Structures are given as structure tokens and as C-alpha cells.
Amino acid sequence: MSSNPKIMKKNERHRKLLDAIRQNPFITDEELAEILQVSIPTVRLDRMELAIPEVRKRTREMASQFFGVSQSLANREIVGELIEIEPGKKGLSFLDTDRSMCLEKCNIVRGHIIFAMANTLANAVAAAQVAVTGKAELDFLRTVRAGEKLIAKAQILEKRGHRFFIEVIVRCKEEIVCKGTFVIHGMSLEMAHYLKLLKDED
After folding, report:
1. Structure confidence at residue 200 as a pLDDT band (50, 70, 90)
2. pLDDT at 1 > cutoff 50
């Protein structure tokens, strides 16, 4: 019995699609279409056949099951979606950019949005009840346009007393958007209260 070349081709495409999503859960249909050399509608049909949700739903599912909890920030305070965190070690967040984040006259995402993504992830990674940014040194290496998806990775390089030295790298696809280091001061709630850093309770 001879095999059907069309079915074999489709099976191979499905395998490559699954491999690509396993390697990068944030990959878009456009990027998959480029890798597989097919149209975007074909990618969407393949995903439907394989019961794979689109990238936004995959991201939400990952965020709802993320590993670990930040001691210093609530999820709503993170710029982007917190995907994984190990306080005192490392963290990962995702940001799906849109037009509301752009400069008024062009399609470029504001730098302070990207900075805030990196900064809040660094604060979240610090193993402290309250985390305050003491110093930040970042290099911006490329612009980001609305619709591009960013992944930020934070890694604690060193801890000296109450200070955390944290490297953060933000990427779009395989390109580095910005990278740098933060010095985060960690403290207890008691110390933050003594320094009058906490909000007054109603």
C-alpha cells in the first residue's frame, strides 16, 4: 500500500509546528507560517486540528499556572504577564505590545514601557517583602513596534546584604531589545514601615 505524499507532508508540518511551539510557546502564527513556508490561514487550520490555542490564550494559560509567587509585587503590578518566578533566583515575563503603548506620532513602543517591564520583573525576583529600585543601567538596542511580543528574563547575579544585583534581558524573537542590571534594595515590612514607605491603611 503506497503512502499519500500529501498526508505525509501534512504530518511532517504538524510535527514541525508542535516542535516550534514547544521550543517557544510565545511564537506567533506569522512566525510559524514563515518557518513552515505556508500561509497564515494554513497555520491556523493546523492549530485547530491539533487543538492548540492561539498565542494570547497560550500565554494566559501559562500565566495562570506560573511557578512561584513574588513576595514584593502583586501580579497586577507587573508590567506584562508573569510566567515564571523563583524568588531569589530568576523570573520570566511576557508583554504583548499594542498601539496604546506607542508614541503619539509613530508606531514605536515607548521606552518607559519596556523599562517598566524590566524593572518590575527585577523587583518581583528579589526575595524580599518590599523591594525598591536603587540603581538601573540599561542599554536599548532596538526599537519595538506595536504588535511585537516581548519576553523578559531576570537572573540574580549577586546578593550583598539587603541588595540584589539583577540582570534583565528583554528580547523580541531572538533579538535583544534591551539589557542591563538593576540594584534592588530588599527589606522587611517592619523596616519599610519604619522608613514610612508603606501606604497608610484606610
Report:
1. low
2. no
| Parallel/antiparallel/unpaired status of strands 175-187 and 81-86 | unpaired
Please state the separation of Cα 152 from the chain's center in Å: 4
Task: Give the best-scoring range by mean pLDDT among 71-80, 113-122, 181-190.
Answer: 113-122
| Pairwise CA distance, residues 146 & 98, whole Å | 5
C-beta of residue 50 within 8 angstroms of C-beta of residue 21: no
Quote the CA–CA distance of 83 and 35 in Å, as a whole number. Answer: 25
| Residue pLDDT, tens place only, 2-13 | 455 444 488 899
Find out if CATH 1.20.120.420 is the number for domain 5-52. Answer: no
Cα–Cα distance for residue pair 37/107, rounded to 1 Å: 28
| Single-letter amino acid, residue 65 | Q
pTM recorded for the entire structure: 0.69
CB within 8 A of 36, min separation 6: which ones?
A: 13, 16, 17, 20, 42, 43
CATH number of 65-194: 3.10.129.10
